[in-house]
Amino acid sequence: MKQKTIMYSIVTIVVLFLVYKINVVLALGIDTFFINLFPRTKLPSEFVDYKNLSEVKKFGSHDITLLHKGGAYNFNFQVLSISNDEIMVKAITKTEPYDHGGGNTGNNFSNTLFKLDSSGKVLDTINFKTSTSNQSEFGEIVLLNKQIVNKALLYYQTWPTDGNKEKKSFIAINKDLTWSAEKLSQYYYDTVVPNCIYLETFLAWRDTSIPVNKRESIMYFANNQWYVLYGVGSNIDNDARNISLNNNKKIINENLLEDIPDDKIKVKYYQKTKYNSNMAGQTQSNSPYTYYYWEGIAYIDIPFANDTLHFKKEDIYLDDYSNKEKSIYDTKSDNKQEMENSVKEKYSYYSNPNLKFTLISDNDSKSLYIIKKNKVID
Asked: Residue 200: helix, strand or coil by DSSP?
């Protein structure tokens, strides 16, 4: 009888071990199912009143208001400084998919620029369209140097600083392609390079009057004016490309929104809600492995003067472990730090001592919030 009991015990252990191995290898979720049957740790009372950021309207002596809710493809908001007491904010307000056939699909975007004064009041707006296509009729618009610049259609607008919505054309140089290579080189090295603030290569493919072999050009900003120099040839084209990259003169979007500093955003608590497993890593050269992680809620604090903004963020994932070979440096604290970093990366902000408000962007929900001091009513 005793021998049978021992045998049954050994068989049971072997069967359970085999079930465990099959479960882990195939990520069947048997273990996670049983783990999820156990009750979770009760949420500490200090975090019970935390709401989703979209539900917070006031905290301490501050009000928080939704400035704009972005669309499905609003990759991020843009903030540019106009002056000490004015900024502009760009948001995508509408997304329209297109299908031109032959697999040529994408999206066109309606954009709105908001001009805000030091109190956060919207003074004016301007609208324009952009597209995922680099051959779009809308061209390629960037916000740079307090201007709206269309790099493809070669115009700019000074609306941010003076309210003028007129589209001003770049000044064309050598459009008739009559300059010699020597004259082009001298003009480029003596006039363009020493004086330009921004510089970028430009292929004039939209202008069919320019021969294909003469379309290599450059665009640049100097003396408060935008220029395009046509027919520069490959040598100048290559040099401009290098200068643009190495000297940080590229004509790209500016954005003052930045990550919130670590000392300004804290994950105060993580509530585990569900245990999960999944399979990954299966390729022709690699064997699959199973990884385990928690799904939960992060409780977050952001200090403002003498107040603190409290809110929670759902659907936050915390790695537990995997059956893949682990580094000796992988620890629970590493996983917790990675989780906290991932939470912090979901938020951006802009603050300026000359402004009476702060902007916070929730990058997941594509929402931009404005935070101001409460108005004191006598």
From this structure: strand
Q: Is residue 179 in a domain?
A: yes
21: helix, coil or strand? helix
Give the ranges where 171-322 is alpha helix by DSSP (H).
181-187, 193-195, 233-246
Phi-psi region for residue 209, left (φ > 0), alpha (ψ -120 to 50) or beta? alpha
Q: Please tell me the predicted confidence (pLDDT) of residue 374.
A: 85
Instruction: Give tens-digit pLDDT for 138-154.
Output: 999 999 999 999 999 99
- Specify whether the CB–CB gap between 31 and 277 falls below 8 A: yes
The DSSP secondary structure of 141-191, one letter per residue, reads EEEETTEEEETTTTEEE-HHHH-----EEPEEESTT----HHHHHHHIIII
pLDDT value at 234 more than 80: yes
Phi, psi of 331 (to 5 degrees): -135, 170
Range(s) of the domain holding residue 34: 24-54+260-373
Q: Are residues 102 and 142 in the same domain?
A: yes
The percent of the chain in helix, strand and coil, each rounded to the nearest 5, is 25, 40, 35
Q: Is 369 part of any domain?
A: yes
Q: Are residues 363 and 265 in the same domain?
A: yes
**119 in a structural domain:** yes
CA-based torsion, 357, 362, 363, 369: positive or negative: negative
Give dist(CA 211, CA 319) in Å, integer.
58
- CA atoms of 108 and 135, how far apart (whole Å): 12
- 323 and 308 assigned to the same domain: yes
The one-letter code for the residue type at 303 is: P
pLDDT at 130 over 70: yes
* Number of independent structural domains in the chain: 3
HSE-CB of 8 using CA atoms within 13 angstroms: 5
User: CA–CA separation, 20 vs 14, rounded Å?
Assistant: 10
Q: How many percent of the chain have pLDDT more than 90?
A: 62
Residues 246 and 265 in one domain: no
In the chain, % of residues over pLDDT 70 = 83
Q: In the prediction, which pLDDT does 8 show?
A: 55
Per-residue model confidence as pLDDT tens digits over 28-84: 456 676 676 777 788 999 999 999 999 999 999 999 999 998 766 666 789 999 999
209 found inside a domain: yes
